[in-house]
Amino acid sequence: MNKTITIDPVTRIEGHAKILLECNEQGAVDEAFFIVNELRGFERILVGMEAHTLPQVTARICGVCPTAHHLASAKALDNAAGVEPPPAGKLLRELMYMGHMIHSHALSLFVLAGPDLVFGLGGEAATQNIVGMVEANPELTKKGLRVRSIGQKINEVIGGRGIHPVTAIAGGISARLSDDQHARVSALSTEAVTLVNELSPTIKDMLLKLLDDNPVLLDKLNLPSWYLGTVNGGKLNVYDGLLRAMDDTGAVRAEFEAGAYADYLVERAVRKSYAKEVYLDVDGAEHMYRVSTLARMNVADGMETPLAQKEFEEFRDRFGRPCHNAILQMYCKLVELVYACEKAHEIINHRDLRGETRVPASIKGTHGIGHVEAPRGVLIHDYKIDAEGIVRGANMIIATQQNTAAINASLKESGADLLAGGNDEQVLNGLEFVVRCYDPCLACSTHAVGQMELTVEVAHQGRVMRRLAREV
Amino acid sequence: MRRALIVCIGNDLVGDDAVGYEVYQLLRRRPLPPSTRLVFLGVGGLALIDEMAGEELLVVVDAVNLGGAPGALHVMAFDDIPQPQTRPVSGHGIGVREALAVCQRLYPEKAAAAVYLVGIEGDDFSSVGGGLSEPVEAALPKALSTILGLLDDVHEMNLKRGLLGKTETEAGRGQ
User: Fold this and answer.
1) Per-residue model confidence as pLDDT tens digits over A44-56
2) Own/partner long-range contacts of A355-358 (Cβ < 8 Å, ≥24 apart)
3) Quick check: is A464 in a domain?
4) Within this chain, do residues A243 and A189 fall inside the same structural domain, yes or no?
5) Is B12 inside any structural domain?
6) Taking all residues of chain A, what is their mean pLDDT, rounded to a whole number?
7) Same domain, yes or no, for A228 and A205?
8) Tell me, what CATH number does B103's domain have?
9) Which of residues 374-393 of A touch B (CB under 8 A)?
10) Are residues A348 and A454 in the same domain?
11) Which of B41, B50, B91 sits opposite A149 (nearest CB)?
12) Rounded distance between C-alpha atoms, residue A233 and residue A158, angstroms
């Protein structure tokens, strides 16, 4: 402990997120907290709004996963009205969502995790980024970025032009697909399937090499936990289905509709943290669980599309069920990326796609709960609506919040080793890597230029002893 | 060929992060020089690459947190835009510089020739639904005239070269 800086750890977070390591007298890590900027304020501002506007308003909560909020919200309104969208409405929503998934997973895989794959671990952070990756492997990067761009375009065509989708409404989708849009998405989805087929063997090779080169990763990031993810007929599904809870031995312990989430998920306030931890309440005990791609791959029995199923089987043969290793989220994203491209292609060629897209929906004086699998895991929207159609209560369960307990556990484990042996740079690198493996959505709100993404504070008895941050 | 692209970035629901959105709303209500395209994005980063179409000028408007007084205006040419030293841990962490560098390398024909960041120093990046803080609100007119000034410079240049096209404003994009 070379420095004593006293700041109140509960004051406003300066960047997107903060890691707080609580140490004992000997400097060993007692507890670790991953603290993100508070999201709860969003629920308060929804109260008093007209409920039918929520799919559009909630899409603006996050620039990274707007479509997940858009669709969870529309589904909550369907549920409130007691209606099911007609087949074309459901297909179009799912197609929009595949676009979003393709975009989000390609961004994570090629831009955020890509440098780890291309350069390995432990080098200069300043050059090991997307720019360095373009220099080192322009062809791979170009294809990866093209996949990202295709996803965004599909999302835009179906969701309405712009970063925030607007077409999903209570009861379905507000507009039918034109011939022109159909032709465009058809061409884009064909290209996406071709590209991921070319990319997946390369990415897989790089990932396996990373694991071979760093055997300690498979050990350190192996954190047994429960998992929660959505399945439809047992197959992985990101738009609709039942929530399946699996324990740390791989046994399915519960399956429930999103509407029953309050019976299974318990929120707990955590000391020194704004964020609450969420636990699965099954058989009278509370269990730490994870959501996101790894969780979905664990709970699912298989994939709906042929190429993704092949990838799924290969993954399972190699890593078993359940697989507890956070670093393999990258691999899981690859499988889901293949799935999303194939699924988009399947939907655009579906014979029911051009039919009626919406049914009338009355949402006055009702209560509705809807969910999707956001790219980062289970996302639930829950609204109480009064007789005038005004929102009187709103609750959202977001992915990162559900993973917080597991992130904290992994940070404690890694933080202890890193603090014992590393300089500031190594500690930051190591902890950032852990956080990146969990792929949290950091403070859906802020992104200002110059703002620090992540800072680390080391504290003893509530006093911050050491503060680690990079210069901006 | 388009001459200028203005990209406003922000989250209209969150404190001073909304400043890019507010500038966008002001700009879309007024006439812009010919061949100027106006776009709003929730998060900048690599989405900038999708938007660029070989413009001579790219102006990015965003909230900044560089330690200045709230409401302070920064006009930075490409080389002065701060480059993050850290690896991004989320899609929020990718900035204008990286997007430009990637674009120049992979799609040189799309990359803007000149890039400016018009950054408005924010104060509050955590409260939700409360609107802009007072000093940031007060900085809007100056931000607007600065952006229009940058556009005029390019417009003048093109007039001299006889390169004028027509205005193309994509108002409503992103909303």
Assistant:
1) 889 999 999 999 9
2) A355/A86, A355/A87, A355/A88, A356/A86, A356/A88, A356/A89, A357/A85, A357/A86, A357/A88, A357/A89, A357/A92, A357/A172, A357/A173, A357/A174, A357/A175, A357/A176, A358/A85, A358/A86, A358/A89, A358/A169, A358/A171, A358/A172, A358/A173, A358/A174
3) yes
4) no
5) yes
6) 87
7) no
8) 3.40.50.1450
9) none
10) no
11) B50
12) 26
Interface test with B, best of A447, A452, A455, A471 (most B CBs within 10 A): A447
Same domain, A145 and A191: yes
CA-atom Rg of chain B in angstroms: 15
Residues A320 and A451 in one domain: no
Q: Which positions of chain A have pLDDT values less than 70? A: 1-16, 37-40, 122-126, 162, 270-276, 422, 442-454, 469-472
CB distance B128–A45 less than 8 Å? yes
| Partner B contacted by A23 (CB < 8 A) | no
Q: What residues make up the domain containing A291?
A: 223-324
AA letter at A328: L
Contacts of B18 in chain A (CB under 8 A): none
In this prediction, residue B90 has a pLDDT band, given cuts at 50, 70 and 90, of low
Give how far B159 is from chain A: nearest CA, Å.
31
B102 touches chain A (CB under 8 A): yes
Q: What are phi and psi of A392, to 5 degrees?
A: -110, -15
Q: 35-74 in A: which are within 8 Å (CB) of B?
A: 37-38, 41-42, 44-45, 57, 60-64, 66
> A99 and A209: one domain?
yes
